[in-house]
Structure prediction request, 164 residues.
Amino acid sequence: MALGVQGIHHIGISVPDLARAREFFIDLLGGIEEVAPFGWRDNPFIDSIVGLPGSAADQFLCRLGNAHLEVFEYHAPSPAPQDPERGVHNLGYTHFALQVDDIAACCARLRAAGIRLHAEPELSGITRHPDGRITGYAATYCRDWFGNVFEIMEIHDCEDMPRV
Prediction:
């Protein structure tokens, strides 16, 4: 029997600096519809949900396109340091992907803000046809200021890659 999944509601990301993360997700990436910030301490209900007795954190939730991102800064328990070079080949969640209108312009803006791209996007994957159609896609992985990996993708009519 199917679980009745309706879609992805949000992706949770833990960061060491919530104010800096807000600059990234809201100001740079253009997150919209930010839900009022929320924090907790001494909350057995949340402790049970997250599986961390005595947890304390501040967070915000914002919408980026068709999904939400929930960004946390945990104060307790103290998080282990993050490896800013953690390979995407390691087990577990490795990245999230954002579909953009113009990957070249997006990359330029990200680079100007100090975001590291793993590689320049291969724009030859996008074809502009004489009849005006555009097909194909281009993508690259990037790391936010904390080392979290995200992918940006420009996708046009392409049977190999679904669009948002």
